[in-house]
Amino acid sequence: MDRYGYGDGKPGNPSVGYVATKQLKDIKKRLPLRVLSPADWEHWTTWGYVVVKNAIPEENVRRLVDLLWEFQEMDPMNPSTWYKPQLRDNEMKELNNSGMVELYNHQCLWDNRQHPRIHDAFVDIWDQEELWVTIDRANLNPPNRNARGFNGFIHWDADTRLDPLPVNVQGVVSLVDTDGDVGGFQCVPELFRTLEEWRKTQPAERNGWVPDTTGFEIVNVPMQAGDLLIFNSLLAHGIRPNRSQDRVRMAQYIAMTPADESNQALCETRITSWHDREPPNGFAFPGDPRQWEKTRYDRAKLTPLGEKLLGLRRWKGQSAAAE
């Protein structure tokens, strides 16, 4: 396993790095739950995902929705503007035409990352306060038709052939109400629940990133605007195609992992990404060829919590990691 818990480093997010020795579902809680209920915790450990209701304020949702329409040069009232070609193809082929928005460090994104309820939810998941937030993007996925054909996918973001299995967590905030028609997050919970036994029955040469879902139910997870869905990277998941007539799926990807403050190089990379408004330098993040983050938008202002979540300030109260 590599430093990021992803096997060969693809297709994970290189903006975080840590070494974990215990599977998330096996954590024995020391800290009291802040956001999750005991029933939420049981659902998380059994099925590999949990939905946190009203994770961000309504005002945050509205501002980010407006920004995504602007950034994508689309008019929410004019569907004829929704079908422009994506700005740059994804090396991670299954993401093409899935609506990825190559925006990473805008103030609206950071306002949600540093919102205390979001942090508290991930504190519950990891059973520790000292976390770093992933530097990730957003999604605006109109109905998948015309030039934006997209049939959805199911994959893992960790190599499930590895032993021990990788440890990581991911998350997505919905900016609109979603259901089975409008698309959004889909997953295979029963495969997560039985993963260890299932692996024993699989051929050694299988694809560790793409499961054979034969015999398993693929579940659509409905969400409301402002909800946060947290999922284990060992949960097979993907984006469901938008088969609605006139509704758009919109979301922001947010996750947190234990802060790796001893890794100075990684810390500096994260700070540079925020300071210079650059995407992570990774396999799945092609960036915006127009460079709008640099030329149109100011650098995001961070709260004291945001500074710690980035790595600009250490959790234990030492001076800033870099300026």
Q: Helix and strand string, N-terminal first?
A: HEHEHHEEEEHHEEEEEHHH
Task: Tell how many strands the DSSP assignment holds.
Answer: 11
Oligomer: single chain
Question: How many structural domains?
Answer: 1
Distance between the termini: 32 Å
Proportion of helical residues: 10-25%
Largest beta-sheet characterization: 6 strands, antiparallel
Structural shape: globular
* CATH level 3 topology: Jelly Rolls
Strand order of the largest sheet: 1-8-5-10-4-2
CATH architecture: Sandwich
The DSSP helix count reads 9
Output the CATH class name: Mainly Beta
Mean pLDDT: 89
Radius of gyration (CA) equals: 19 Å
| Amount of beta strand | 5-15%
Task: Give the low-confidence spans.
Answer: 1-9, 319-323
What is the SS-derived class?
A: alpha+beta
CATH superfamily: B-lactam Antibiotic, Isopenicillin N Synthase, Chain
